[in-house]
Amino acid sequence: MRTIDESKKKLVIQTVLELVQSDGIQGLTFGKIAKQAGVSSGTPYVYFDDKIDMLSKIYVTVKEQMDVGLAAEVEQGTTIQDKLFLAALHFARMFLAHPLETNYMNEISANPQAVSPAAIARGRDLAAPMRQLYQEAAAAGVIVTDRAEYIDALLFAPFMTMLANRRANGEAVTLPELTALINLSLAGLTK
């Protein structure tokens, strides 16, 4: 059995993120990954059983990375509106700091069949604090809908769209711009 070389594993994962950014998930193969990473064709198999295992493990790792510190930041809010703002701001910061990972999450969201049901379940578990915040906001009557999918769309889609459009045009997005957009989103979401 081959030993795990953590630096090669990181290289494989970084290459996956880059290939998903440039080519999407559908055409991703272990052969392409190995070639772009400059490793032998068998190297990805040292770390992952198959494509679904690889995409699933990376998905969970990225989801955990994006959620680090979320609960502590949200708890700093004194009102539900503050907490919603801080949650969105947390993700805006993460998305700016980790553009490849953000793109990866978007690709998985658009192609959920690419990851295992266990990975999807783990992602839902990691999203539980956001769902609890949504329930709290709905129970307090401060938001216009109690449907999580609508809340996600109103709160996150505007700045995700801005990030994608700017990236496609080779333009940067600043945190103040995202903050302004989050405030506009909250104006549409809250009563």
TrEMBL record:
Residues 6-66 form the HTH tetR-type domain. This is TetR/AcrR family transcriptional regulator. It comes from the Bacteria. Residues 29-48 bind DNA. Keywords: DNA-binding, Transcription, Transcription regulation.
